[in-house]
């Protein structure tokens, strides 16, 4: 089973790109972020016409998350994190699909730092950490996937010295990422590519994509019940080079039906 995450950066404006990639990659399950579409404006028909079931949590102009499946019905279990005091921001959707519980998330950017947006990011991250712990306690096969808006290490950012004041690279944010993975989650992309420079985001400015001046901020985290089923993890880097594309590239993993030896590519 192939599961992908993709910050589409406007699902309606970039629908041709999304549909082209869906047909090319043939991912079984996809979580999307940054829909930038009200609930009633999500392009449901176009998605279903490709053979996907779909659920989404929209928000006008900002945020928004969705989940697509072509391997069975999506059994939605939650929208939003527990005890979220600001339910107006559509940032989390969770569902069971084909035997895997998937949390699709869009963690706040947090800039400028310091400031209210940064404090909100930290609070949201804390709620995610708390909820993730409860998911691990279930001992179910669980995947957390999405745009985390954090570069965990200097290996995950082009010229890290330029990012020390940014909310995506702040020590408090990076510490929370490692607090999260320290619960027992496996960083799928880094497991398959432990020593490589590999990015998932390139700014639209300063010719960043052509220079490969990127960031790794889109992550797929596996619970222990899924870790031994990881076969592959890749970034569809070329999609970032398409016309009118998102500033993110899709990231995907391949899981075997049962524990297996991983394949490196």
From TrEMBL:
The record marks 149 as: Transition state stabilizer. Its cofactor is Mg(2+); Mn(2+). PROSITE patterns: AP_NUCLEASE_F1_1, AP_NUCLEASE_F1_3, AP_NUCLEASE_F1_4. GO terms for biological process: DNA repair. Residues 4-248 form the Endonuclease/exonuclease/phosphatase domain. Belongs to the DNA repair enzymes AP/ExoA family. It comes from Sphingomonas suaedae. GO terms for molecular function: DNA binding; double-stranded DNA 3'-5' DNA exonuclease activity; endonuclease activity; metal ion binding. InterPro entries: AP_endonuc_1 (IPR004808), AP_endonuclease_F1_BS (IPR020847), AP_endonuclease_F1_CS (IPR020848), Endo/exonu/phosph_ase_sf (IPR036691), Endo/exonuclease/phosphatase (IPR005135), ExoIII-like (IPR037493). This is Exodeoxyribonuclease III. The active site is at 106, 147 (proton donor/acceptor), 248 (proton acceptor). NCBIfam families: exoDNase_III, xth. Keywords: Hydrolase, Magnesium, Manganese, Metal-binding. Mg(2+) binds at residues 7, 34, 147, 149, 247-248. Gene3D superfamilies: Endonuclease/exonuclease/phosphatase. The record marks 248 as: Interaction with DNA substrate. It comes from the Bacteria. Probably binds two magnesium or manganese ions per subunit. PANTHER family: EXODEOXYRIBONUCLEASE III (PTHR43250). Its EC number is 3.1.11.2. The record marks 218 as: Important for catalytic activity.
């Amino acid at each position: 089973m192939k599961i992908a995450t993709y910050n589409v950066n406007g699902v309606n404006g970039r629908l041709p790109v999304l549909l082209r990639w869906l047909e090319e990659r043939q991912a079984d399950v996809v979580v999307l972020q940054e829909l930038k579409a009200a609930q009633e404006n999500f392009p449901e028909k176009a998605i279903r016409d490709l053979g996907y079931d779909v659920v989404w949590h929209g928000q006008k102009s900002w945020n928004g998350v969705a989940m697509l499946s072509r391997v069975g019905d999506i059994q939605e279990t939650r929208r939003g994190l527990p005890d979220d005091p600001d339910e107006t921001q559509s940032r989390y959707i969770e569902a069971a699909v084909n035997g895997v519980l998937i949390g699709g998330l869009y963690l706040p950017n947090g800039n400028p730092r310091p400031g209210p947006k940064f404090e909100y990011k930290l609070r949201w991250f804390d709620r995610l950490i708390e909820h993730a712990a409860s998911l691990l306690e279930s001992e179910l096969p669980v995947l957390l996937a999405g745009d985390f808006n954090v570069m965990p290490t200097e290996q995950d950012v082009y010229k890290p010295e330029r990012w020390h004041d940014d909310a995506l690279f702040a020590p408090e944010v990076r510490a929370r990422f490692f607090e999260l993975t320290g619960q027992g989650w496996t960083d799928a992309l880094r497991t398959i590519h432990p020593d490589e420079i590999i990015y998932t985001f390139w700014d639209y400015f300063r010719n960043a994509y052509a220079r490969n001046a990127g960031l790794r901020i889109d992550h797929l985290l596996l619970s222990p019940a899924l870790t031994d089923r990881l076969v592959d993890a890749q970034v569809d880097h070329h999609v970032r080079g398409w016309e009118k594309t998102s500033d993110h590239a899709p990231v995907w993993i391949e899981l075997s039906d049962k524990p297996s030896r991983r394949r490196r590519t």
